[in-house]
Every structure is written in structure tokens, then in C-alpha cells.
Amino acid sequence: MFPKEGANVPEFRFKGFTGDWEQRKLSDIVDVMDGDRGKNYPTEADFSEQGHTLFLNASNVTNQGFVFNDTQFITEDKSNSMGNGKLQLDDIVLTSRGSLGHIAWYNAAVMNQVPYARINSGMLILRKKSDVNTSYVHQYMKSAKGQGQISFMSFGSAQPQLTKKGVEGLKVQFPNDLAEQEKLGDYFATLDSLITLHQRKCDALKELKKGMLQKMFPEAQK
After folding, report:
1. Domain 23-216 in CATH: superfamily?
2. 173: which residues sit within 8 A by CB, 6+ positions away?
3. How many CB atoms are closer than 10 A to CB 198?
4. CA dihedral of residues 108, 111, 115, 121 (deg, nearest 10)
5. Cβ(93)–Cβ(106) under 8 Å?
6. At what angle do helices 134-142 and 144-154 cross, to 10 degrees?
7. What is the full per-residue pLDDT of the chain (222 aa) written as tens digits?
8. Helix, strand or coil for residue 123?
9. Structural domain boundaries of the chain?
10. Residues near 70 by Cβ (< 8 Å), separated by ≥ 6?
11. For residues 69 and 56, is the Cβ–Cβ distance under 8 A?
12. How far is Cα 125 from Cα 116, in angstroms, rounded to an integer?
């Protein structure tokens, strides 16, 4: 769906859209923000299993988006003592250290589940600052085109990481028409939902098969 090199329109697109596409630096359309790494950064003693603000860890931002199986929280007072790094509706989180390039969108559904959240020091926030559809940006950053740029940027480092400056320079291709951006973002988001749904069904069937095999062919008692 994305433009070929040197072209200003994609090879395939939805009917009814004829306008040009453009290429911009990521920093032209979003603010790239890191978190608070100062004296108020949480220590182990600040974390609890329940609390006011979810402090994201590496397992919470995956290739499939946000996952909240393993969570740690800080108090509201602790969160208020910190500077940058608090998520706002429509923010995109990008992992910048460890598992590089994982992308998650803090949309309304996620915010309803986790109303207060902060990134850790191995993550960046992409916060839109221009008239662009966040769902489209999210999908583009997950695409082979976006991930390829991320991989190229981190290649060859002994301890791969993404710098704020480097991420700001990533190239994004998008249609000028907001309606087309929205349609593309919704289309790929729907595919993501279907993939997740079928993956859950597949996992459930695997567990059913495993249980039935154990019942039919029990291990010999030692």
C-alpha cells in the first residue's frame, strides 16, 4: 500500500482517493519525547502491584501493542513529582532500548483500561503536533518500511538503542488527505484485531488439544 521509491502516490489505494502523498521527517508531524530520568525516577521501593499510575516496563510494549499481564504501579504523588513521560490520549509509545521498535498506541480503549501511565527510560513518546491521523502513523511505524528504518538506525551497535534525535529523523510517507489516512489506519487496525482474535482461538485450541492428549495418553506413574 505504500509508495514506491520516487513516487508520490502508492501502487494500490482505496477508491475515491486521488491526491498526492508526501514524505516528511517524523519530527515534522509528531513531538518525540523521552521520559523523566532525573532524581525522581522510581526505584524498586516505589513500585507496587496496585496503584494510581502504571509505570510501563518492557513486557508491556510488544509487537502486538500494549500487554498488561505484568504490571507495576507508582503513587499519584510519585507520578506528580516527575517531569516528562506521562501518557496522553493518542500518544504512541516506541521502545528505544532492549527490544527495539515495539510500538503501542495509547488510544481511547487502552486509556479506559489504564487511565494513568508513564513510560520508562527505555521508551519514547510520539505525540502528534500537526493535522495527521495517529492510527495511520501507528500503522506506518509498525510496517516493514518503518521497522526497516529503525533496524538500520540501530544496526552495528554493541548495545543497540534508538536516540531521540535519530527517531526524529525517520521518514514517514502519508497521503495529504486526512480521510485517506483515517481509512488506511482503520483498515490495518481491523486486520490487527482479526489477527489477535484468531491467535487467541488458535491458542485455545492448542490448549484443548494438549489437555485431551494428556487425558488419552497419561504419563506413566513413577
Report:
1. DNA methylase specificity domains (3.90.220.20)
2. 2, 3, 21, 22, 23, 140, 145
3. 10
4. -130
5. yes
6. 60
7. 444 444 578 888 899 998 889 999 999 999 999 999 899 999 999 999 999 999 999 999 998 899 999 999 999 999 999 999 999 999 999 999 888 999 999 999 999 999 999 999 999 999 999 889 999 999 999 999 999 999 888 765 667 789 999 999 999 999 999 999 999 999 998 998 898 888 889 989 999 999 988 888 787 655
8. strand
9. 23-216
10. 57, 59, 60
11. no
12. 14
What does R_g of the chain's alpha carbons equal in angstroms? 20
Joined together, the cell numbers standing for residue 35 give 521520559
Whole-angstrom distance, CA of residue 144 vs CA of residue 152: 12
pTM: 0.85
Half-sphere CA count of 64, side-chain side, radius 13 A: 10
Maximum Cα–Cα distance across the chain: 72
The CA-based dihedral angle spanning residues 38, 106, 104, 42, taken in that order and rounded to the nearest 10 degrees? 20
Task: Give the side-chain half-sphere CA count within 13 A for 186.
Answer: 7
Q: Are 126 and 94 contacting, i.e. CB atoms less than 8 angstroms apart?
A: yes
d(CA 118, CA 121): 10
